């Protein structure tokens, strides 16, 4: 990993950037120009509600830019000082902050508009930002040797849950959370017709190669936004909206290769361990702690800076290394911060990139070239403390909806770590 903490000034030409994908907060565009310094990099451009960046006076725009710049600088420091020690330096991608002009942002926004999914059009690239994150590319449009015999293939996994909570502070009606993971319960909120995915993320993090491969097959049957395969830079699904051999060359081989990677890479076990330990209180007990900390001034409406995150991680690490399970010694502020950190890590995406994946017409797939890969995590900006009440409401809604569909404990399908 190489993270540049300063602000870098590079000439950016709008026509050199292509749409890749987007989430709730950012649009990702990749570079296809001739500048060797930018080849192999992508820009993460912050989004806002359509019209939110229009007719803003200069003073207000200046305040916004300064606040956004500080937030992004804190995110860089957070990646280097918090995420890297937790998941491993080797899994955090190189990144830097670069200056962007309003003209550049508006032109890129216009250039990519027709390529964006309809469901994302309520937001647009925010033209008020003065700097954007430049990150090493993990979704490439062209294979390494630029021939028709191979493809560049990237697998994106966003499992959302790595472990069952160990908290003892559940209300009686929430005890189901000890048996069924957050992801599997959430399926009943997302799919009111009960047509839920068979994928369980705990299988993916089980360390058992057969269970991992089976979980990937289940994931491929209903991928949604949590499982994406990119072939030469484009996300692909078959005519049924599934990931299969119809759209991914040698899908069975890819599934098995990813299963091997998930079993051997330390990233998966590290994420699971820290998720389990950081989420020791769960949102049910953290909400009253959050309210008490706000009332007493231990926490404020200001989002924490990097100093507060470093203190949180240091205290957590001391407790973890000592083997202490005494949660009574943890302050309200520490419990809230640990939950936010757990939520941040739960929401990361794992990207696995193969530069030379065999094409469909390849008759010999035994070459080791296809198994050479790069792996890393993205989407690890810290979540906001102000989201705590929203997380609590979502948690209650998810449990209630699940129990409406599955009131009989004997018929509930338990998740297994």
Structure explained in plain terms:
Keywords: ATP-binding, Kinase, Nucleotide-binding, Transferase. It catalyses: 1D-myo-inositol 1,3,4,5,6-pentakisphosphate + ATP = 1D-myo-inositol hexakisphosphate + ADP + H(+). This is Inositol-pentakisphosphate 2-kinase. The protein has 417 residues and is of the alpha+beta class. The protein has two domains: 3-136, Phosphorylase Kinase, domain 1, CATH 3.30.200; 143-417, no CATH class. The protein is 38% helix and 17% strand. It has helices at 58-87, 102-112, 182-190, 201-204, 209-221, 251-264, 266-278, 282-296, 306-322, 332-346, 388-405, and strands at residues 3-8, 17-22, 26-31, 41-49, 95-99, 123-125, 131-136, 150-157, 227-231, 234-235, 349-358, 373-378. Strand 9 and strand 10 form a beta hairpin. The longest helix has 30 residues, at 58-87. The two termini are 30 Å apart. The model has no long low-confidence stretch (mean pLDDT 90).
Short description:
With 417 residues, the protein is an alpha+beta fold. 38% of the residues lie in helices and 17% in strands. The strands form two sheets. Strands 1, 2, 3, 4, 5, 6 and 7 form a seven-stranded mixed sheet that branches. The chain has a five-stranded antiparallel sheet with strand order 10-9-8-11-12, with no helix packed on it.
Q: Could you say how many structural domains there are in total?
A: 2
| Strand portion | 15-25%
Number of strands: 12
What do the pLDDT scores average to? Answer: 90
Q: Main β-sheet: number of strands, strand sense, barrel status?
A: 7 strands, mixed
Q: For this entry, what is the oligomeric state of its chains? A: single chain
Q: What is the H/E string? A: EEEEHEHEEEHHHEEHHHHHEEH
**Rg result:** 22 Å
- Content-based structural category: alpha+beta
InterPro entries: Ins_P5_2-kin, IP5_2-K_N_lobe
EC number: 2.7.1.158
Protein name: Inositol-pentakisphosphate 2-kinase
Keywords: ATP-binding, Kinase, Nucleotide-binding, Transferase
